[in-house]
Amino acid sequence: MKLHLQNNFISELPADPSEINIPRQVQQAFYSYVLPKKPSNPSLIHASNEVANAIGLSQADILSTDFLNTFSGSTVYPETRPFALCYAGHQFGNWAGQLGDGRAINLTEVVHENRTYTLQLKGSGPTPYSRTADGFAVLRSSIREYLCAEAMHYLGVPTTRSLSLMLSGDQVLRDVLYNGNPAYEKGAIVCRVAPSFIRFGSFELFSSRKDYVNLKLLADFTIKHHFPHIQGEGVGKYLDFFHEVTQTTLNMIVHWQRVGFVHGVMNTDNMSIHGITIDYGPYGWLEDYNSNWTPNTTDRQHKRYRFGNQPEIALWNLYQLANALYPLIQDAKPLETILNTFSTDYEKEYLNMMQNKLGFQIKKEQDAVLILSLTQLLERVETDMTIFFRNLSNVTKKDTATTAFNTIKDAFYNEKDLNETILKDWHDWFENYKIRINEETLSDTERKEQMNRVNPKYVLRNYMAQLCIDDADKGDYSLLNELFEMLKNPYDEQSNFQKWFAKRPDWARDKVGCSMLSCSS
Ligand code: AMP
Ligand code: MG
C-alpha cells in the first residue's frame, strides 16, 4: 500500500514541544504529536472503495494487512507522525475554552490527483485533549458516523468522507442514557477524510488567548493551502476568506434543510472551515416534518440545534468566527457587512432550493407564500418529509386537488389526524400548486425527473441506522452492506430497496437511538 504523503500542516505550523500524553492546556501550538493506541484485535468491517480510490488506493490495498494496520492504528505508516489538533470552541452557546482532538488522531496528509486529503482516525485512544474522557469510540456511534458521512456525500451534501470502519477488539465503557448504568460496548475506529480538519474553533483558540502571531499563521496557512484562489495580501485577503467561509457554510445549511438533516451539535468546534458537515454525533433525519425537532437529548430542553434553527445557528457561529478573525482585520464594518448578507442570501437560496423541491423551474417571488403555507401544513399533523416530497413528483398537471392530494397521502403517519379543516387547507394548497405547475413549461415527466434529483427517495432514517447497529453488535454486517449500497444512489428508484421507502415504524417513535440520541459515543 503506497500513500503519497504530504506534511504541510506539521512542517509549517508549530507543534506542542511536549509529547506527554496526559490531558493539559497546550499553548502556542497547533497540535501535539501522539500515537494511536494499539487495538488488541483489529478487524475491518467496511471500507469505501470510492474514498480509497480518491486517495490513491486500490481494492487490493483495502484487503492488505497494511491497510488494516494503518487504519486501525496498529502501526504507524512509514515517515508519518500522527498528531492531535488543538482547538477551542463555543458549546451550546457558551465559551468552552480549549477542546481539541480528544479522540481523533490525524495520521497524515496525502495527495492524489492534485488534491490534498487529511486522514484521521476517530476513536483510537487518548490525546492531550481528551480532558476527562477516554479517547475511544463505540461501534454504535462509529457506524452512525461512517454510514451517514457517505450517505450525505451521495446526496450531494458537502461532508467529510469515510474511508474505513474497524473493530478494535477492545471493550469501551459507556453510560448511554447518562443514568448511572454504564455498560461495555464494542470499540471501533473510523478513518475519516477531509481536505483538513481546521474548524471555526481553531481560530477561536488563538484569538481568545490573544496569540495573534499564531492566529495570523493559521489564517495564512489555511488560505495558502486550502483557498489558493484568494490572492492579495493584508486585510482584503482575510475578508475574502471570511466571505467564502460564510458562503460555503450557507450552502451546506441549505442542503441540510433540503434533505432534512439535523446535525444536533452545531458547536463552533464542529464547524469546518471548508463548509462541510463534520462530526456526526447525535444527528438525526427528519421523519415527520417538524422544525422544532432535535435528536440530541442533551439539547432537549432548549432545542438550540433544532431543525428550524440551523440557519440561525450557522450565522451565530459565523459571528464567533468573525470575532476570532477581527484582530487580523481591525475593522468590524466589513465583517458585519458580510454577516448581514448571510440572512438575505439564505432567504434567496432557501427559496430557490424549495422551488426546486416543488418542481418550479420558472422562479417566481410569490412562490415564497406557497412554500410557507406548505411548511406550515406539513407541521400540522405528522407528515413524513421524504415521502411527501418524493411522491409530490407524481402529481400531474391534469390532476384535481383531490387526486393530487391522494398522491401524497402515504406521507401521513396517522390519517385520523386529518380533520376537516386540515383537509380543506390541503385542498386549497393543492389548488394553488396545480395552478403553479400548469405555468411550468416542462412536461410532467420532465418535472418529475428534475424533482427526483433533489428529493431523495432514500435517506439514513434513524431507525435504519439502529437496526444496522443491532445486527452489527451481533457480528452481522449484512444490513450495513445493504444500506451502504442503497445510500450510494439515494435519488434512484432502486425498486429492490423499496421496503426502505417507508415511514418510520411505530416501535421506533420514541426509542433510544432512533428518535433520541445522547452525546455518549
Ligand atoms: P463533540 O462535540 O462530540 O465533537 O466533542 C466535543 C469535544 O469532546 C471534542 O474536543 C472531542 O474530541 C471531545 N470528546 C468527545 N468524546 C470523547 C471521548 N470519548 N474521549 C475523548 N474526548 C472526547
Ligand atoms: Mg467535535
Radius of gyration: 24 Å
- Which strand order spans the largest sheet, edge to edge or round the barrel? 1-7-8-10-9-3
The percentage helix is 40-55%
Total beta-strand segments: 12
Can you tell me the number of structural domains? 4
The geometry reads as: globular
Overall SS class: alpha+beta
Ligands (ions, cofactors included): adenosine monophosphate, magnesium ion
Largest sheet: 6 strands, antiparallel
Straight-line distance between termini: 31 Å
Q: What assembly state would you assign to the polypeptide chains in this entry?
A: single chain
Number of helices: 17
Mean pLDDT: 97
The fraction of residues in strands falls at 5-15%
Unreliable stretches covering 5 or more consecutive residues: none
Order of helix and strand elements from N to C terminus: EHEEHHHEEEEEHEEHHHEEHHHHHHHHH
Would you write up a description of this structure?
- With 521 residues, this protein is of the alpha+beta class.
- It has 4 domains: 8-197, no CATH class; 201-355, no CATH class; 363-452, no CATH class; 462-508, no CATH class.
- It has 17 helices and 12 strands.
- The chain has helices spanning 8-12, 49-54, 59-62, 65-72, 139-155, 200-208, 212-226, 235-259, 310-329, 332-358, 367-380, 385-392, 401-408, 420-438, 444-451, 462-473, 478-487, and strands at residues 5-6, 31-33, 43-47, 83-85, 88-91, 94-98, 104-112, 115-122, 161-174, 183-194, 261-262, 284-285.
- Strands 1-7-8-10-9-3 form a 6-stranded antiparallel sheet. A two-stranded antiparallel sheet has the order 2-4. A two-stranded antiparallel ribbon has the order 5-6.
- β9 (161-174) and β10 (183-194) form a beta hairpin.
- It is globular, with a radius of gyration of 24 Å.
- The mean pLDDT is 97.
- Residues 269-270, 279 line the site of magnesium ion (MG).
- Belongs to the SELO family.
- GO terms for molecular function: AMPylase activity; ATP binding; magnesium ion binding; manganese ion binding.
- ATP binds at residues 100, 102-103, 122, 134-135, 192, 199, 279.
- Keywords: ATP-binding, Magnesium, Manganese, Metal-binding, Nucleotide-binding, Nucleotidyltransferase, Transferase.
- Its EC number is 2.7.7.-, 2.7.7.108.
